[in-house]
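[agent] plan:
  1. take the single chain provided in the ticket
  2. run structure prediction with default settings
  3. attach structure tokens to the ticket
  4. add a short note for the reviewer (M.T.)
[agent] executing step 1
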Amino acid sequence: MTANELRQLFINFFIERGHKQIPSASLMPENDPSVLFTTAGMHPLLPYLLGEKHPLGRRLVDFQKCLRTGDIDEVGDASHLTFFEMLGNWSLGDYFKKESIAFSHEFLTQILKIPQERITVTCFAGDQDAPRDNEAADAWRALGYPDERIFFYPKKENWWGLVTGPCGPDTEIFYDNGQPKCGPDCGPACNCGKYLEIWNNVFMQYNKDKEGKYTPLSQQNVDTGMGLERTLCVMNGVASVFETELFQPIIKKIEEMTGTKYAQPNIKAYRIVADHLRASTFILGDDKGIMPSNVDQGYILRRLIRRAYRYLSGLGAPAKAMSAVAQVVVDNYRDVYPELERNREFIIKNLNREEELFGRALDAGMKIATKYLDAATDKKLAAADAFRLYDTYGFPLEFTQELATERGVKVDTDGFHRLYAEHQEKSRAGAENKFKGGLADNSEETTKLHTAAHLLQAALRRVLGDTVFQKGANITAERLRFDFSFDRRMEPAELAQVEQIVNEAIAAGLPVMCEEMTVADAKAAGAMGVFESKYGELVKVYTIGDYSKEICGGPHAANTADLGKFKIQKEESSAAGVRRIKATIG
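[agent] step 2 finished; step 3 output follows
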């Protein structure tokens, strides 16, 4: 089975059951401060999960490009990836657990022909916040699943939700490869390799507020995600996702360039390079124009590129090998994700530039490493030195150990792991603080700022010209961050004029009008459509007087008079050809 066949089987199955297909959205979530990337198919649909009416109805289906960095250190095994595709079906207040589970069972056993005895499922065990999910377990039992293949786990395993917002129990579906259990407690939560998670059905029953209180949602939603790569692995009977057609052309290209083979001891290096460069290609290939940098998405991109470069260099790759791999990724995916072809030149240029920059940093790191190793007392490299090589110069512990072994030096690995754990905890705490707005911070303040973003884009186009387009936005309850296409610093007089235009629209007390129409009609009406590709054939168009007409999913204030005074706090560079404005209202 090919990836295209699996995508189409999934889409067709749910269309036949009353779902409407929506396109994949950007990897960079719009107006969601809780995450840097689209980590699941639900991010683009957040307004509709909170009660907004979707133009295409209450049953939806899609395949969505996603990226997660939480498992970056696990990449190299048989199944963990940073970039992946999620096949998803949605119920926005329509069907719920019984119907969702029945759909999943039917697709797996009847369409994909996976033997039912190879399927094991998990359900939420219950706690002080929510009861045991017997409803989901009963739905599985009714389909013929015995109790010994229904496992109950706590929130850590069977609950979906972020800091705040819609959340609830999930039921996860695993493929049992048939190998013996590793022990009496072996189950889907075990990491022995017997069970591979392929589908997750999330039942959004609750809303979690900032105080950590869970209250039932008036609209109960279903949000499911099937991993394309993992399911393809199962369907083709291969040992890992890297043996599927999605990775084999990349692996063959690495073999060709390096003169090495995808075999031990090189397997982990090959997998890291293939995964990280595929992910980097998709980030660079997104129409949002993200470039390597030291902040936010650009920092994650830089980390992926540099980690790939280290391992690729270790395999003996020539110059510009990363961009050669990216060319293969673009060729593989351009028919499904045409933005990669549109941005091919941007992808290649940035990979080559980053390779040149990091090549110099790597040389500097080697000099420091040599200094540390020559000075190592008792032939043991201190944990602090090993961690400094990792944190400052990007040396993985394995690489440092190889250098040390060549000089007969041992590395304090226990101490390194302690420092690494402390670093991870600090990073996690910092991220939680930075993105404390949470997934569903559709508060009154963020709704007002979202509306102000429409007025800001309109004002920028009036002052700077119609080549200005929104490139991204990030909104918290405290401020608006708006990225737009423009190639120079704005003059103080221009900023003052933009601010004045927005405040004039606010003072005018204009109603924010919403209409549903086709994309073609919206364009004909002069609506801005920077993000229309994510909505589908019917869209919502929000009009604010003669100032703004935009395709958008919401949420919005009812009247501009509700916004308060608009104030630009800062204007700065975001990326090449992209400027950023930070603003507040109040």
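[agent] step 4 note for reviewer: The mean pLDDT is 88.
[agent] ticket updated
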